[in-house]
């Protein structure tokens, strides 16, 4: 196989990875707290010899997540929370503690504040957030303090990863912080709001068209190269 074919194949592999990322973004354009994902392309250059041109190959293996602020939508729900600015909520999952921007919470039958999947929401100290039942209206302040009938009963924690580049996406809205995390003392949250996905559907659809066209061009090149090699082999075998 010629170097041009190898280079084209690596490019096609990267474009397929980007197409999957774009399609996933479009599918989650309306998912609360979803963070858009992209693919970073890198180039590998290898010297083949003193009298030969170098070989360049492309790779699209690194996933990049956008943590830009999404728009805020008013819901009026007493346990719907949106983070304004930096920070993440901390939830307890079967796999460990995870960070998320999705704040659509609700108390369970035990009074613990949980996610739609039933994962416990944690406070600044890493303990489950408990919401007493039957105490009247519940208010949640910008710093996460929960008040029932004007009396503070708990505080929802906000956290930031120690190494933002070490965040690993586990689902569309949950992340594992490989380098750990720490409380965010100056965080701000809004009660009765949810943060929308930060995906721009128009941009993602445009990018999908661009990637598809680039893939089709690469496929056409590979087909022409295949035809050229077949013709060359037929001529040599005559």
Characterize the structure shown:
There is one protein chain. The chain has about 240 residues and is α+β, with helices and mostly antiparallel strands. It folds into 2 domains: about 100 residues, no CATH class; about 120 residues, no CATH class. Helices cover about 25% and strands about 30% of the residues. The strands form 7 sheets. A 5-stranded antiparallel β-sheet has the order 9-5-6-15-14, with no helix packed on it. Helix 1 packs antiparallel against helix 2. It is elongated and about 95 Å long. The model has no long low-confidence stretch (mean pLDDT about 85).
| H/E series | HEEEEEEEEEEEEEEEEEEH
Distance between the termini: 21 Å
For the largest sheet, list the strands in their spatial order. 9-5-6-15-14
Estimate the global geometry from the Cα principal axes. Answer: elongated
Q: What number of domains?
A: 2
DSSP helical segment count: 2
Q: Structural class from helices and strands?
A: alpha+beta
Share of helix among residues? 25-40%
* Poorly predicted segments: none
Q: Sheet bearing the most strands, described? A: 5 strands, antiparallel
- Please tell me the overall pLDDT: 87
Number of strands: 18
What portion of residues belong to β-strands? 25-35%
Radius of gyration: 25 Å
């Amino acid at each position: 196989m010629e170097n041009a074919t190898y280079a084209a194949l690596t490019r096609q592999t990267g474009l397929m990875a980007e197409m999957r990322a774009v399609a996933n973004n479009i599918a989650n354009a309306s998912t609360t707290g979803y963070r858009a994902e992209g693919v970073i392309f890198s180039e590998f250059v290898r010297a083949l010899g003193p009298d030969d041109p170098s070989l360049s190959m492309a790779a699209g293996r690194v996933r990049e997540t956008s943590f830009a602020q999404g728009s805020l939508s008013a819901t009026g729900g007493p346990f719907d929370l949106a983070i304004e600015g930096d920070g993440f909520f901390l939830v307890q999952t079967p796999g460990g503690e995870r960070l998320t921007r999705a704040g659509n919470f609700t108390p369970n039958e035990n009074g613990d504040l949980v996610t739609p999947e039933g994962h416990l929401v944690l406070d600044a100290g890493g303990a489950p957030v408990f919401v007493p039942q039957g105490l009247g209206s519940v208010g949640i302040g910008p710093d996460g303090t929960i008040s029932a009938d004007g009396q503070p009963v708990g505080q929802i924690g906000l956290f930031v990863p120690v190494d933002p580049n070490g965040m690993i996406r586990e689902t569309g809205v949950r992340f594992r912080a490989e380098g750990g995390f720490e409380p965010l003392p100056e965080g701000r949250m809004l009660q009765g709001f949810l943060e929308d996905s930060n995906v721009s559907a128009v941009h993602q659809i445009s990018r999908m068209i661009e990637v598809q066209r680039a893939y089709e061009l690469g496929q056409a090149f590979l087909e022409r190269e295949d035809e050229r090699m077949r013709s060359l082999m037929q001529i040599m075998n005559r």
